[in-house]
Amino acid sequence: MPSNYSQRRALLAITRASFKAIFSNPSAIIFSILFPIIFIMIFGAFGNGGPTRSKIALAPGCDTTNVFFDSLTHSPYIRIVHYADSTAQRKDFDKGELAAVLNITEIPGRDSAGPMSRYKLDITSTSASGSSYGQFMQTLENLILKIELGMKGPHTNHFMVIPVKKEVKEFRQIDFILPGQLGFSILFSTLFGIAFTFFGLREQLVLKRFYASPVNRINILLGIGASRLFFQLINVVVLILFGHFFLNFTLQHGAWTFIQMLLMTVYMLFILMGVGLIFSSIVKSDTSLPLLINLFGFPQMLLSGTFFPIEVFPKWLQAICHILPLTQFNDAMRKISFEGLTLLDCWKEIGILGIWTLVVYGILVRVLKWE
Question: How far out from the chain centre does Cα 248 lie?
Answer without folding.
Answer: 22
